[in-house]
Amino acid sequence: MDKVKIVDKKTGATKEVKKSLASDYIGTGKFELYKEVKEEKKDFKFVVNKDDVKKDEK
Fold first, then answer.
1. Residues linked to residue 3 through DSSP beta bridges, in sequence order
2. How far is the C-alpha of 58 from the C-alpha of 2, rounded, in Å?
3. Which 8-state DSSP code applies to residue 50?
4. Residues 22, 36: contact at Cβ < 8 Å?
5. Spatial contact of 31 and 57, defined as CB atoms under 8 Å apart
6. How far out from the chain centre does Cα 30 lie?
7. How do the pLDDT tens digits run along the chain, 58 residues long?
């Protein structure tokens, strides 16, 4: 039993229904298929110049 997610256009609510029934919901014009948007992970790298770092003098 495959399921797909659909979104109510008016409220934005998501609903999970059987794949065979999804076309019936979309046919009413009130729903559309849910498209998942994956957020990209950003790796932040800090670069420090040697000139910027103060050396401790003893």
1. 18
2. 70
3. G
4. no
5. no
6. 22
7. 799 999 999 999 999 999 999 999 999 999 999 988 767 777 777 777 777 666 655 5
Going by C-alpha positions, the residue among 44, 4, 43 that lies closest to residue 26 is 4
Is the pTM higher than 0.70?
no
49 class by beta-carbon count within 10 Å (0-12 exposed, 13-18 middle, 19+ buried): exposed
Of the candidates 27, 31, 29, the residue with the CA atom closest to the CA atom of residue 8: 31
DSSP 10: T
Q: What are phi and psi of 21, to 5 degrees?
A: -95, -10
